[in-house]
Automatic annotation (TrEMBL):
Belongs to the metallo-dependent hydrolases superfamily. DHOase family. Class I DHOase subfamily. It comes from the Bacteria. This is Dihydroorotase. The gene is pyrC. The lineage of its organism: Bacteria, Bacillati, Actinomycetota, Actinomycetes, Pseudonocardiales. CDD domains: DHOase_IIa. Residues 46-234 form the Dihydroorotase catalytic domain. PANTHER family: ALLANTOINASE. Its cofactor is Zn(2+). Catalyzes the reversible cyclization of carbamoyl aspartate to dihydroorotate.
């Protein structure tokens, strides 16, 4: 199987033709010589070519939440968004806390074949926080789990967290923490600050994130383990991460597209589409997120793609579920918040949306350079395109995008997984 990508600009640089043979890049140049007659042609029209995007944090809802998303619909969203690998969080029903469940998720992803679906295993049984799940069994299962998280909930108990990190060190896996001191966020409905006070919503203090991250960095240092901090939202957390990294702690961190762009100023209308955990914070926080991502204190962008069917979202603020769609809008939001202001170039986008996520998730065939001999996991982007977001036009049964009606820059023209086109011109290629 041969694919010829004509007139593509890797990382925005000079245009080249790229020949892909059996899933591997075999020639890069002008007018490759080795293309057989039945070669499939992808005319890239001078667009920007990036390595396929890798998302460390998505919720695919299967098993148990199929009214909101399935592994199939989430795979569609991923391919359309430029992704070639995603990590599926374990807050499913049943929870992804045994080899049986993680193997099911991995197998279902492979059957669909649009994106590599890597299940994240739960840290604790049932994500209840009291007893460790069988991390080693999940790691050595056919699902080859490399990241463990109780995401949706924080691993609160420092004794459990310490033990999880010790196992993680021995197994060479990562613990991804949803950093939220639940005692400090009881009843919380919005970022604790002026907006929440005015709206009469109970506050989620930024210190509930910062204190857990500080504690976990100390525990990770002692255990010699790899800690990953999910969805950083507070500028104070950045100072903790910077200090821990300077000490050599094995800590990485992600920021979501919505925490790069949106603030709690959007809460005035009490529209639950803006409800998310951690909550939207202030303009000072979004600005600090952008700078930390440019600097590398925050390593990656992860979507926290969190589909919720309308019955869970179109309800009053207090009972609506937290979470936002992200897979099909993330690259555009990163272009808008990071590329347009000059904080990242295309190499930088590749770093935070593909290379570093693949390193953290331990995926040797993802996030690779666009070079001869490398696997052809690719994402072709038209940087000059503009599009208007419509939730109902996005893949899957949920429409909870916070960007409804917004015009965003940059469109994914094609996604290539191991030499096979999985999405093209906004349509999935089955
Ligand atoms: O907003 C969120 N939604 N935050 C989480 O931690 C979980 C997620 C979900 O599963 O919907
Ligand atoms: Zn979370």
């Amino acid at each position: 199987m041969t694919l010829l990508i004509k007139n593509a600009r890797p990382y925005g640089e000079d245009a080249v033709d790229i020949l892909v043979t059996d899933g591997v890049i075999t020639e890069i140049g002008t007018g490759p010589t080795g293309a057989p007659d039945d070669t499939e042609i992808l005319d890239a029209d001078g667009h920007v070519l990036l390595p396929g995007l890798v998302d460390l944090h998505v919720h695919l809802r299967e098993p148990g939440g199929e009214e909101s998303e399935t592994i199939e619909s989430g795979s569609h969203a991923a391919a359309l968004g430029g992704f070639t690998a995603v990590f599926a969080m374990p807050n499913t029903d049943p929870v992804q806390d045994t080899a049986v469940v993680v193997e099911h998720v991995r197998r279902r992803g492979a059957e669909i074949g649009l994106v590599d679906v890597h299940p994240v295993g739960a840290v604790t049984q049932g994500r209840k926080g009291s007893q460790l799940a069988e991390l080693g069994t999940m790691a050595s299962s056919a699902a080859q789990v490399r990241i463990f998280s109780d995401d949706g909930s924080c691993v609160d108990d420092p004794v459990i967290m310490r033990r999880a990190l010790e196992y993680a060190s021995a197994l060479d896996v990562v613990i991804a923490q949803h950093a939220e001191d639940h005692r400090l966020t009881e009843g919380a409905q919005a970022h604790e600050g002026a907006t929440a006070a005015r709206l009469g919503l109970a506050g989620w203090p930024a210190t509930a994130e910062e204190t857990i991250v500080a504690r976990d960095c100390a525990l990770a240092r002692e255990a010699g383990a790899a800690l990953h901090v999910c969805h950083v939202s507070s500028l104070h957390t950045i100072a903790v991460l910077r200090a821990a990294k300077a000490q050599g702690v094995r800590v990485s961190a992600e920021v979501t597209p919505h925490h790069l762009l949106l603030t709690d100023g959007r809460l005035a209308g009490y529209d639950p589409v803006n409800k998310v955990n951690p909550p939207l914070r202030t303009g000072a926080d979004t600005q600090a997120m952008r700078e930390a991502l440019a600097e590398g204190v925050i390593d990656v962008v992860a979507t926290d793609h969190a589909p919720h069917a309308h019955q869970y979202k179109d309800t009053e603020w207090a009972v609506a579920r937290p979470g936002m769609l992200g897979l099909q809008t993330s690259l555009s939001v990163v272009i808008h918040t990071m590329v347009e202001p000059g904080l990242l170039d295309w190499h930088g986008v590749a770093r935070v949306m593909s290379e570093r996520p693949a390193e953290i998730g331990n995926l040797p065939d993802q996030g690779r350079p666009i070079a001869v001999g490398e696997p052809a996991n690719l994402c072709l982007v038209d940087p000059d395109a503009q599009w208007t977001v419509r939730g109902t036009a996005l893949a899957g049964p949920s429409a909870n995008t916070p960007y409804e009606g917004m015009r965003l820059p940059g469109a994914v023209v094609a996604t290539v997984l191991r030499g096979r086109i999985t999405a093209r011109d906004g349509k999935v290629v089955a």
